[in-house]
Predict the 3D structure of the following.
Amino acid sequence: MKPTKKTAFFISLLCLANAASSTVSHAQSSLTDIGVLPGGLNCEGIGINNNKTVIANCEDSQGRTFGIRKLSGQPIEKVPTISGKSCRSLNINNNDVVSGQCTGGSGEVRAVRWQSSGTRQVLEALPGLLGLLPDVAATGGPINFHGWIIGTSVNANGNARPVVWPGGQLTPELLPSVDPLASGGLNSINCEAVALNDTISTSNGPVVAGTCNITDNPDVMQSMAVFWRRNGLGNYAVNVLDTLIPTGNCDAISINNRGEIIGNCTDSNDESQAVFWPNGSTTPQSVASDIPSGTIRSSVAAISGDLVTGTFLTSNGFDHAFIWNPTSNAFLDIGVLPGGLSSTAVDLSGGAVPIIIGNMKFDDGTQRAFHWNGFGGLFDIGTLGGPNSMAVDISDNGNVIGTSQVPTGHQHVFIDPF
């Protein structure tokens, strides 16, 4: 999620379509290897913010995985653990606050928040109510600008419920399941929160997007996209979004600061299509109707302001990344570089000039990270000396993080700074 407003720049993107599609391959020379833990061989990139602060997960000399954080100009450092056990970094905001999860002292999973100072906060699971036992574990997830984190609280039977931890707080709030009275008699079996925006002015809390598995028949399950918004009483309420067809399935993927949600829904051919739900409407808009050549299958990756990026199946049978403005119905095929077979979008920056990152497969069997912008076109990000690389995340202001093979065949994290 890159919740930054856009200008009318997308019009110029269409004018530059021919230039973008004819751009020659250009490998970037500014990649920085962030290094590895002492004795470790591999690291996996996770996220980067506007301050060029990086989070990753790295192996130590014993093959254990630990979350790391790297401030700009500083060496990598392990984030504080629980009893010295493994931790994983999951997400970072522009205030250098990190969300993640650690293995607790008894082997249970605990959601954590690492403050910008590096201090670790262990986030609580849901307490027991009305004689029920408290939950025993919690998993972390995305974090917004104000430090709110979404995740799950897990009971002793392994059943998980979606929750949100308000910024600075350790106690979670339950995100309620679907009420049969509000969903035509459907009951939600389980729900998962997947994204939240930065807006907290609406009833003092962000809007959260997610997916619920719903049924009115034990033998038939349907996935439906939902969002949770705080009501006038300060409690979160769940709202169900429509599918493309009555028996179809939908999954929410992300949300912007206007409350617009993107996701994937099955169509009448039971194929996935990228969709957009405007704020204030439960009706999805499919990208398929805006693709000049049409498509059998598509999926979304990210939304930022007015713009959506994702991947669609072209008429020649290969995937291409796209950029789409659902409001104006403008669509642009990002295409591939010379020697490229397919491209897949991963993320989208903020700012007036959007930058898309993704991964491209080439005819020699390799895969390399790419970035695209409306002025310069399509660029091969390159590698750290090995044959393959993978883009993972881009900050609002254009800093890129990814994972690349090095000459030894191991995986290291690279930064491609803006």
